[in-house]
Design a protein that fits this description.
Elements: H1 2-20, H2 27-48, H3 51-56, H4 65-78, E1 79-95, E2 101-113, E3 118-129, E4 136-141
Antiparallel strand pairs: 1-2, 2-3, 3-4
Length: 157
Amino acid sequence: MKRILSLLTLSAFLFIVSCGAEKQPAPAAIESKNVLAELRDIRRAYERKDRADFMKEVADSYKDRQALSTSVEGVFSKFESVKFNVQYAKMVIMIEEKGVIRATFNWDGEWQAKGDLVQKDGGRVTMVFEPGSFKLMSIEGKNPFVPQAGEMPGMTK
């Protein structure tokens, strides 16, 4: 009888301890979540056409940071509205140990100019983020924030 009571007490204790303990997410999961939040912040600032907020999300170490700022300002002044979509379902996030974070994904955008002229574009891009601050360090591939000059594919009226 004592033995059964001891086993029941031990079982109850282990059950209570296992139910009350929260499993902590892995560091990579936390960093991935922060990258997704950063992408959402960048997208929101871009769609609002708020250059100051957009550039707050770009790291000081971004090569040609000033050129990006100037290009984005040109886009904001040329187009009345901007829609930018990140396709999160097939995103790949690579986290280097004690290094940068790369998010590769498909995107599509729609820029509407005066006179109902709409430019559509899309592609696949890799964005590189600083570890810790999660600020945008570089863009590898077609820059989704600056529509290509010259011929405008997808231009409709």
